[in-house]
């Protein structure tokens, strides 16, 4: 409901209303795609590569009633494959468990990349490494000879893609027989908080919503593809409760409030 049927309802109604007003002279474009959760390759990424987009992009896929998102984290998805030696589980001294080797690689990488000092940042603006899937083993009494796992890495402006890859390569080299393949590398979304468009939007938002702050989030969105084309990108939506959970929900009242902000902003910018 909140991620993001509410956003689709909001922008669909906004587009309908604006396109029926004779006073609208701006070029307006509405994009609704279906693959943002799997990195947007065939959706917004493809569209921006065909030069569809705009100077200003509003995305109802971040923030909440009191927060406008102007920055997100970089993201890397990669696959690790560990090779061991398969055999009967009753004789572990003769074989090498690929799942154990894979997990050791993960913990080593995690320890090196997740800088301890940054983990105490009050806004959680630190690099994170998560083992998100793992596959291996053929039987409960057999030591696995191969295992694969995917890592999802989110990082900030304090480091670089090259440094992270170097840390991973050094970590797996010391363990032996582990390979790495980068499946996806996502860019960053960042808009200058002093930009006139940001200030104008914030002023309008505060007129309707009282106090609204600028913030950075820990996830990633399709906004990064527009940002790479030098568009000014803003993310704000109604508050989404229990996002990706069993009780995900939003409220009609907040939907109406954000609609009012969007409409006044588009007509005035």
Task: Summarize the structure in words.
The protein is of the alpha/beta class. It is built from 7 helices and 10 strands. It has helices spanning 5-19, 44-49, 98-113, 161-173, 196-209, 223-227, 252-268; strands spanning 56-59, 67-71, 74-83, 87-88, 128-136, 142-143, 146-155, 178-186, 213-216, 232-235. A 4-stranded antiparallel β-sheet has the order 5-7-3-8, with helices on one face. It has a two-stranded parallel ribbon with strand order 1-10. α5 (196-209) crosses α7. The mean pLDDT is 91.
Descriptors:
single chain; 269 residues; alpha/beta; four-stranded antiparallel sheet; two-stranded parallel sheet; 32% helix
Distance between the termini: 29 Å
- Strand count: 10
Poorly predicted regions are none
Mean pLDDT: 91
The biggest sheet, with number of strands, parallel, antiparallel or mixed sense and barrel status, is: 4 strands, antiparallel
Number of helices: 7
As a percent range, the share of helical residues equals 25-40%
Shape: elongated
From N to C, what is the helix and strand string?
A: HHEEEEHEEEHEHEHEH
Query: Widest sheet: strand order?
Result: 5-7-3-8
Structural class: alpha/beta
Question: Into which percentage range does the β-strand content fall?
Answer: 15-25%
Rounded to an integer, what's the Rg over CA atoms?
Answer: 23 Å
Task: Give the helices and strands, then pairings.
Elements: H1 5-19, H2 44-49, E1 56-59, E2 67-71, E3 74-83, E4 87-88, H3 98-113, E5 128-136, E6 142-143, E7 146-155, H4 161-173, E8 178-186, H5 196-209, E9 213-216, H6 223-227, E10 232-235, H7 252-268
Parallel strand pairs: 1-10, 2-9
Antiparallel strand pairs: 3-7, 3-8, 4-6, 5-7
Helix pairs in contact: 1-7, 3-4, 5-7
């Amino acid at each position: 409901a909140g991620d993001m049927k509410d956003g689709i309802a909001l922008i669909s109604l906004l587009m309908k209303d604006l396109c029926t007003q004779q006073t609208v002279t701006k070029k307006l474009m509405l994009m609704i795609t279906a693959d943002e959760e799997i990195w947007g390759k065939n959706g917004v990424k493809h569209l921006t590569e065909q030069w569809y987009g705009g100077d200003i992009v509003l995305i109802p896929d971040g923030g909440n009633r009191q927060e406008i998102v102007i920055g997100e984290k970089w993201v890397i998805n990669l696959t690790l494959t560990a090779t061991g030696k398969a055999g009967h589980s009753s004789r572990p001294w003769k074989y090498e468990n690929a799942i154990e080797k894979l997990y050791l690689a993960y913990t080593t990488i995690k320890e090196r990349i997740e800088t301890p000092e940054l983990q105490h940042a009050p806004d959680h603006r630190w690099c994170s490494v998560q083992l998100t899937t793992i596959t291996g083993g053929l039987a409960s009494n057999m030591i696995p000879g191969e295992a694969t796992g995917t890592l999802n890495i989110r990082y900030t402006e304090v480091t670089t893609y090259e440094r992270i890859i170097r840390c991973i390569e050094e970590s797996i080299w010391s363990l032996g027989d582990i390979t790495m393949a980068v499946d996806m590398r996502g860019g960053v979304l960042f808009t200058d908080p002093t930009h006139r468009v940001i200030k104008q939007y914030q002023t309008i938002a505060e007129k309707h919503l009282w106090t609204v702050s600028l913030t950075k989030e820990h996830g990633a969105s399709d906004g990064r593809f527009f940002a790479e084309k030098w568009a000014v990108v803003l993310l704000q939506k109604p508050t989404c409760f229990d996002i990706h959970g069993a009780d995900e929900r939003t409220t009609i009242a907040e939907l109406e409030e954000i609609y009012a902000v969007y409409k006044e902003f588009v007509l005035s910018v």
